[in-house]
Each structure stands twice: as structure tokens, then as C-alpha cells.
Amino acid sequence: MIITQTPFRVSFLGGGTDYPEHFRAHGGAVLGTAISRCAYQTVMRFESSLFDYSIRLGYRQVECVRTLDEIQHRAFQACLRKLELTHDIEVNYAAELPGFTGLGTSSSFVVGLLNALHSFKGRYVAPMDLCRQAIEIERDVLGEAVGCQDQAWAAMGGMGLIEFKPNDDIVVTRVPMSTQRRAEIESHLLMVFTGITRRAADLASKQIKKASENKDRYLRMRTQVDEGYAVLTGNASLEKLGSLLHEGWLLKQSLDESISNGKIGSIYKAGTEAGAWGGKLLGAGGGGFVLFVVPPERRERVRAALKDYQEIPFGIDAPGSRVIHAS
Question: What are residue 39's phi and psi, to 5 degrees?
Fold first, then answer.
């Protein structure tokens, strides 16, 4: 049995510049972190000759099928096909947080599954290779309108700046942090769930179509990444990070009217009026989680203002996808 643990992610700045439709022309970068909330994949062998099926998949549903072509879950099907695993295999998926909520869960699913299947076949695959394989699966095989940051966070983990070059190179620069600075950053982050789930690819496809007309906004988002990196690696107050997230959220909303809505706006307004320095909706838009940068002395006031929405605690700088059990 193989068990993998793969992190979800929180993106601070630069989201949207990680779409090839933009970075192949202008370059892109994101600033963010893998978080301590994770997805888990288990893979094990079974003797299909004793059963009336050859492949068993467990997730929100259970699929027991004879061939790859019968699999309804397209990501499972694509990953098993890529690894040429056609029988005598059982795969199960579990996650600490729901999908379609702006935390990169779909990419964590694919990265963790690929890592587990490679390990099941006795192979080690480097994190960058896992990242690229996941991008290929999601964009080229499944045809999803997704960016490239989620796969990178899931595969490589950590907290840092990820650059996307016009030639498709991906360059990762870690945020060097002392234990004290890490604790300080964590103490300033607060995340709540809007209660709304949505398919990011549906929203992203609208934004991709407007990539050219929004070029200047994306270029400003790119410069924000460098400014945010300077804040995190220095000793300055994190109020500047909150201001950058606020500006980035305003820019993000201007990309397409579907990104925000009345409920998201009211949550953001309540948090900032209660004392948050700034924040943003995570992911492509439309729902999911809202992240705030809050000074610790105002944390309880912000929580009280958002008492109707579930807060999700998390740690930053989590490791990338890894095998946590092999037997």
C-alpha cells in the first residue's frame, strides 16, 4: 500500500499571471504558500481474478470497473492511463477541505495521484517533473482552463515566489524565514469559508478570453509579487502585505464581473471594517475562501464580525507531495 499526502495552497499575489495565455507573451509570477491542509491518496493491489471488476476507485463515489474506458472520473482515468495501470489496482481519495473552493484542490488531487501511482510502480519522480506531468494532464488531456501555479505548490510545497517564463520554464525562489517570522506571518492570516463552491475552470475561461484587454492589470499584478516578496523576506510590518492584497483584490475584480458577488463583497467589507488590513478571495473567483491579513490584536474583533462563516486554521510553508506510507 502507498499513501501520499499533498498540500493545498494559498496564493497571495500574482494569480492569473500563471496562465500560459498570459505568461508566454509577458511572463508571470505568483507569491504564495503550500498550507498544512492536505489531500490523501492510497493505492494498493488486489487480485481482480477473485472479483467481477479490475479497478476500484473510492472518492465521493465508488467506481468498480473492468476497463479504463468505463471510469467516469476523468482525472482518475487520465492518470491511470498515463501510468499504464489497467487492472489489479484500488485507489482511494480523501481530503481535509472540500473541492472547488479556491485552494488548488483539483491540482493537488492530480499531483498526489500521480505521485502515488509512480510510487506504486517503484518509481521516484522529482517534484518539478510531477508538476509538469500534472499540468499536462489537466490542460492537455482533460482540457481544463487552469493556470500552472496550483500544480507547482502541490508538487514542490513551501512558501515562495514562482516565476513562469515565456519559454515555459518554471523558477521557484523560496521565502527564507526564521521560526519567529513564520510564526508572525501565520498569526496575521485568517481564512473563512464563503459557503459557495464553484468550478474554477468555468470562471478562468472567461478571464482567459479577456487576457489581452487586461494585460496592464496583469502586469501590475506581476510587480506586486516582487513587492510582496520584499515584505515577507524583510522585517517590515505585514500591514504592507495587507495593502498589497487589497489592491490585488480590486484588480482581480476588475478582470471580470463574475469574480465577485454580493455575498463575497459583504464578507470582505465586514472583515476590513472590523480591522483587517486587507485580503482577497482565493482562487479564480465566484466563491470559496476569503483570506485576510489581520493584526493579532484585532483578530477576535474580525472573528466576531465574521461569526456566521467558518474559520479554517492552517499553517504555512508546508512540504510538497510526499509518500507517508509504503508497505
Answer: -110, 150
Cβ 65 vs Cβ 46: under 8 Å: no
pLDDT tens across 251-283, in order? 999 988 888 899 999 999 999 999 999 999 998
Question: Which residues on adjacent β-strands are paired with residue 58?
Answer: 62, 92
Q: Report if pTM > 0.90.
A: yes
Are 83 and 118 within 8 A, CB to CB? yes
Measure CA 232 to chain center: 20
70-78 contacts: CB < 8 A, separation 24 or more? 74/142, 75/106, 75/109, 75/110, 75/113, 75/137, 75/138, 75/142, 76/113, 78/137, 78/141, 78/142
DSSP-based three-state secondary structure for 280: strand
Q: What are phi and psi of 234, to 5 degrees?
A: -100, -165
Q: Give the separation between CA 70 and CA 80, rounded to whole angstroms.
A: 12
CB 68, CB 80: distance < 8 Å: yes
Amino acid occupying residue 290: V
Q: How far is CA 250 from CA 10, 122, 136, 222, 265, in A?
A: 18, 47, 31, 14, 11
Q: What are 212-227's pLDDT values in tens digits? A: 889 999 999 999 999 9
Phi, psi of 198 (to 5 degrees): -160, 160
Q: Which letter does DSSP use for residue 140 in this model?
A: I
Q: Within its chain, how far is the Cα of 75 from the centroid?
A: 16
Q: Which helix (H) or strand (E) holds 249?
A: helix 239-253
